[in-house]
Amino acid sequence: MNSELKIEVSGIVGTQEMNISTGELARQAHGSVVVQYGETIVLGTATMGKPMSPDADFLPLLVEYDEKFYAAGKIKGSRFMKREGKPHDDAILTARLIDRSIRPLFPKGMINDVQVVLTVLSYDGVNDPDVLAMIAACGALMTSGIPWEGPLGATRVGIIEGVYVINPTMEQRAKSTLDLLLAGTSKDISMLEAGAMEIPESAVLDAVEAGQKGIGSVVTLLSQLQEKVGVAAREGIYAKKNEEHIARIEGLCVPLLRSKLALSKGKDDIAQAERDTVAGVLEQLSEAEKEEISEHEVRSIIHIAHGKVTRDRVLEEDARSDGRALNQVRPITVNAGILPRAHGTGLFRRGDTQVLTALTLGGPDDALIVDTIRSEAKKRYIHYYNFPAFSVGEIRPSRGPGRREIGHGALAERALVAVLPEYEHWPYTMLLVSEVLESNGSSSMASVCGSSLALMDAGVPIARPVAGIAMGLMSDGKTTYKVITDIAGMEDEKGDMDFKVAGTEIGITALQMDIKVTGLTRDILSRALEQARDARIHILGEMNKVLDKPRAELSKYAPRIHTMRISVEKIGDLIGPKGKNINEIIDQTGASISVEDDGLVSIVTNDGNAMELAKKMVHDLTREIKAGDRFEGKVVRIMDFGAFVQLLPNVDGLVHISQFRDERVESVSDVVQIGDVISVVVLEVDALGRINLSHKAAKK
């Protein structure tokens, strides 16, 4: 490749032109492309190094996605720190999407260090950079010579008024009932992720089909670019394998594994079967063989063989290691309301996976402020997922959430969005935390179930309960395949697919799929969705036995919120100069008060008396005074022609001297003094906003 020459291709993808180029930026990276769609531009680079260790047995792939505020013409919000630091959660989620898309296409056994970096250079507020970053990653790898079995493309699909739209704009996505991200080719899908508004399975299948057409356009462009560049292949380094050792150990272990797994019923039995097999194989090795084949190598070969045996038993016998049928969900137990001080709790167990979700309710001011290149927004529904080491019987220090925890938390969060109440009717901030207490597959979907239970236990008026299930696939790589419901253990680790599906009895609310083989057909996807629906309905039935709708009352420890709408013109009156009025209400009542730009006022407090006082004070500051209204007001100023009476804070009206008595009054001070409280009625509010009052009319 001539490094001084910019090489580019372009074509229509969806409704806009996409331009992909190389040779101009980041020329010292092994592969570098720039993808532009509208005025959104993403730079993708790929670099390969030597293995971390010559004895490594995995691919240390690192994917970094970086959004810079300059891309949107913004300066970071904090007055004290302008340098952008660690990536925010949305950036981490995008990096995970890219990692999950490209990782399966690296050759098996390759152990080189590989880093793929995506940098958003420009964002136009219309076209989301995440899809472009996925395309840029694929393009960087394809032009790098790094061993990678591309091409691969990506696209987004929305459903707007029944029409499938490729790469919808940000405005269109706000109206869409589906937000589907796809990676693959025009024939195969390798990754998908979606949030949806309870759509049917058939709509998902049609959206995938529409997305593959968009992917086909992207793949064509990437292939054209690769051909123009003329990439020289780089040599990868692969994990050492001793085929003789593998054949010897597999010959001994496979019969043992088959016989022992046939008797297993759960996670502990399956793990013990592998340990017993290791012990049995070591007993059969001669002393000379033990000198040549280490125990570590024996364990590694047997663990890999365990996955093969699990696959073969499913394909040949419809037999699973825990004895279940292929479409059978593990035993389920459900509980709710078990933590007295949390505002809502859900405890969900499926087999050896157990998740406890706790919900805390807060006011509008407790919402999370999310500041990204897209916008600065408030997030009122938040879900965090924690996966401690003890949940799988291991020991490791806790250093905060990793990418996996952030990803699983976001998936479970997305699954409930479709059933949440509208902000105007339910202005609470909802913070859920899912603690994985035990894990043997699909803890993220257990978190969906736990979250649904916690919300209902707290009295949050969700539309319907939501449940989730993880589906798997075992295939021979050709025409034979089996779809598995509720995958666990080795089915998850060594299977060909991890397909998480969440939804209600009506339809799907979230999807996430990773697949390790090519050839995912519509028939396979349809079968998986059908089995997932059956499992979801079953799980919802088990949940409904404990809690089938939101509780009628909130926890006594949860804050109460009263909302009222005021005229937008009255917002200034409520807040007052430099916040004087609203701070006075807060100081007197102890309530928290938030005011939206559209005039929605939320009062948050646990104290009933404070709530009533705060409501009255807000009402008094913002009410519209009209003729006929009656007040008990304090005389605040006396003039020769009448007296001014305070009706509301900062609102005075005039009682003319003629409006005190039917008979003539010589002097105002003859009938009232400053500080007197008198009854008045509003005669009129004139064109200038002046309020004319009558005392004598109020006495009649």
Automatic annotation (TrEMBL):
<keyword id="KW-0479">Metal-binding</keyword>
<dbReference type="InterPro" id="IPR036612">
    <property type="entry name" value="KH_dom_type_1_sf"/>
</dbReference>
<dbReference type="InterPro" id="IPR012340">
    <property type="entry name" value="NA-bd_OB-fold"/>
</dbReference>
<dbReference type="InterPro" id="IPR012162">
    <property type="entry name" value="PNPase"/>
</dbReference>
<keyword id="KW-0460">Magnesium</keyword>
<dbReference type="Pfam" id="PF01138">
    <property type="entry name" value="RNase_PH"/>
</dbReference>
<feature type="domain" description="S1 motif">
    <location>
        <begin position="628"/>
        <end position="696"/>
    </location>
</feature>
<feature type="binding site">
    <location>
        <position position="492"/>
    </location>
    <ligand>
        <name>Mg(2+)</name>
    </ligand>
</feature>
<keyword id="KW-0548">Nucleotidyltransferase</keyword>
<dbReference type="InterPro" id="IPR036456">
    <property type="entry name" value="PNPase_PH_RNA-bd_sf"/>
</dbReference>
<dbReference type="GO" id="GO:0000175">
    <property type="term" value="F:3'-5'-RNA exonuclease activity"/>
</dbReference>
<dbReference type="Pfam" id="PF00575">
    <property type="entry name" value="S1"/>
</dbReference>
<dbReference type="GO" id="GO:0000287">
    <property type="term" value="F:magnesium ion binding"/>
</dbReference>
<dbReference type="Pfam" id="PF03725">
    <property type="entry name" value="RNase_PH_C"/>
</dbReference>
<dbReference type="InterPro" id="IPR001247">
    <property type="entry name" value="ExoRNase_PH_dom1"/>
</dbReference>
<dbReference type="InterPro" id="IPR015847">
    <property type="entry name" value="ExoRNase_PH_dom2"/>
</dbReference>
<dbReference type="InterPro" id="IPR004087">
    <property type="entry name" value="KH_dom"/>
</dbReference>
<feature type="binding site">
    <location>
        <position position="498"/>
    </location>
    <ligand>
        <name>Mg(2+)</name>
    </ligand>
</feature>
<dbReference type="GO" id="GO:0004654">
    <property type="term" value="F:polyribonucleotide nucleotidyltransferase activity"/>
</dbReference>
<dbReference type="InterPro" id="IPR004088">
    <property type="entry name" value="KH_dom_type_1"/>
</dbReference>
<dbReference type="GO" id="GO:0006396">
    <property type="term" value="P:RNA processing"/>
</dbReference>
<keyword id="KW-0694">RNA-binding</keyword>
<dbReference type="InterPro" id="IPR020568">
    <property type="entry name" value="Ribosomal_Su5_D2-typ_SF"/>
</dbReference>
<comment type="function">
    <text>Involved in mRNA degradation. Catalyzes the phosphorolysis of single-stranded polyribonucleotides processively in the 3'- to 5'-direction.</text>
</comment>
<keyword id="KW-0963">Cytoplasm</keyword>
<dbReference type="Pfam" id="PF00013">
    <property type="entry name" value="KH_1"/>
</dbReference>
<dbReference type="InterPro" id="IPR027408">
    <property type="entry name" value="PNPase/RNase_PH_dom_sf"/>
</dbReference>
<dbReference type="InterPro" id="IPR036345">
    <property type="entry name" value="ExoRNase_PH_dom2_sf"/>
</dbReference>
<protein>
    <recommendedName>
        <fullName>Polyribonucleotide nucleotidyltransferase</fullName>
        <ecNumber>2.7.7.8</ecNumber>
    </recommendedName>
</protein>
<dbReference type="GO" id="GO:0006402">
    <property type="term" value="P:mRNA catabolic process"/>
</dbReference>
<keyword id="KW-0808">Transferase</keyword>
<dbReference type="GO" id="GO:0005829">
    <property type="term" value="C:cytosol"/>
</dbReference>
<comment type="similarity">
    <text>Belongs to the polyribonucleotide nucleotidyltransferase family.</text>
</comment>
<dbReference type="GO" id="GO:0003723">
    <property type="term" value="F:RNA binding"/>
</dbReference>
<dbReference type="InterPro" id="IPR003029">
    <property type="entry name" value="S1_domain"/>
</dbReference>
